[in-house]
Amino acid sequence: MFVRPDNWKELSPMERRKVRLDNWQNAPVQFMSPEAEANYKERIGRLRKIYDMEPHDRPIADGFMGANEYVVRRKGMNGKDMVYNHEKLREPLLEFHNEFQPDTAVSPLPYPGKVMDLLNYQTYIWGGQKLPDELTIQAVEGEYMMADEYRVFAADPTDFWLKKYIPRVMPALGPLAMLTEFPRVSENVDLIDMILPFGLPPFQAMLQTLMEAGNELMKMLGAVGQTGAMIAASGFPSMGFNIVKTPFDYLGDTLRGTKGILTDMYRRPNDLLAACEAYVPVLINAVVNASDRNGAPAALYVLHKGADAFMSQPQFEKFYWPTWKQVMMGLYEEGIVSYLFIEGSYNKRLQNLAEMPEKSLVCHFDQTEMGPVKDILSDKQIIAGNVPASLMATGTTDEVRAYCGNLMDLFGDAPGYIMAHGCYFENTTDDKMRAFMDSVKR
Amino acid sequence: MSQELIDAITDMREDDVLRITNELLNGGASPLDILNACKAAMEVIGQRFETGEAFIPELILAGEMMTAVSDILKPRMAEEAPGDKLGKIVLGTVEGDIHDIAKDIVVFMLDLNGFEVTDLGVDVPAARFVEAVQETGATIVGLSGFLTLAYDPMKETVAALRENGLNVKIMIGGGQIDEQIRDYTGADAYGRDAMAAVALAKEWVKES
Question: Is the reported ipTM for this assembly greater than 0.85?
């Protein structure tokens, strides 16, 4: 929970950023020993200095975006365990942190398997469900908004999500489509329309399902929360994120699908642009509210269809960048850092990122050439990346050491740098993980 | 060959492409001529893709325009002799991976460039690749995989093809595929995009 100080309105974006980061850095932790407390404070202090681009002793190595499955797979856990058996992950996770002493906490994303089962969730398949137990989770792209629904979406994105998108991707929640349009509920008789669905058997059955899902979620969060608290208590801080996407990626990944969105750029460009615009205030509001609820000082963008290979620079600057930048600027005004996980390459987009105010971004690269990143961005923004997943999975320890060494030559003295993987991978070796983590300690 | 049709395709004017195709047919043009114009247009789009002037939206839209044109031509094409194919290719996304978008673009570009492509779909076991090569007599195999979990299935598929003594060239591609993974899997080459796959396939049929 983040509580704004009384003088919030008078604070500049950078002052607000400081208040949010202070709140994160000083969140109470019950440490298991004075030594764990000292380690935690040293680690979180170093990470904070990197975020503030202030002088510090060395970069950190953060395995969160790459090794988050390896940390449990190395002890025999599989994909199904990561989706369904969160208690079972605790021991391997504590063991990993104890053995490797990483700069930050590393754990798998908390996939809510039983909740996904109850809701009959359609946009993913996962281990123990339709994928073999060994595998974790994969997205199933679909067309969940038809081409002729752009205007309905743009008129009221929240209403579209509640009554069209959610029923389509979670059939167990289909009765949500019965709900009235809430902003018109103003007079006493309007309560009839508002409450009517709650009296109908299909809607009541849905509410029962939601309560079951809620109970399952609480059990899962209990397990995940306990593990997280124990990792923190042992001395390992984690960065707080709320996950978000760009307006274009929400429309492309989630609603229209890749073929849909990319052809819409030609077939209905104005509708697409209007939908991106409509999304901007919704996303700013959503991330600010989430950051206030959970105290996370950063928004993590998983970036997809704006990469070099997907579209031309003029298309990027027309369809992708303007509304995304508006969202990032809106969050910047509220003191929230935008952490960009840039999948693929962004060789042509670096000048766009350079338009953003200083320290507003963490730019985490996958396949982007890091030389130009250093020249164009590293004085202004925090940089992370870009040890290839292919190298971690199939290279030698010496090759990992050499690659990380080159990154240290480039960024070792940069104001803010995080050694990180370009993409997640299932498997590597302990030796390669050590080479990755030790590379920043030279 | 209709320059007007070629221009409409390369300018991505979808409605004009269909209108012009119908006008040409009604004016007595042969379906083969129209098809040749489509191929010429696709060559231009392919070149633009290689030089970084066209991207995935153009490839996808061009693919949809080609499908629409061929739907118009099909009823009139019965008497036209099919052109000679450059070679046979078996292609699919490897076991455990269900991604199809990039694979579909590669299949489309190979098909358009004169190859007979057997598309095995997604989540394809190694044994199915072996069977498909035996059934079709393909000399080239393409393995697609979006995720890092594709590395081992790719390696296993390459091994299965070799163990069965099949004399095929194997290319791999996908979001996290690079030279490191080519070496790991034992494939003959990797390609960054659909045009790289076309270039490799053309080079390999020339060699054989």
Answer: yes
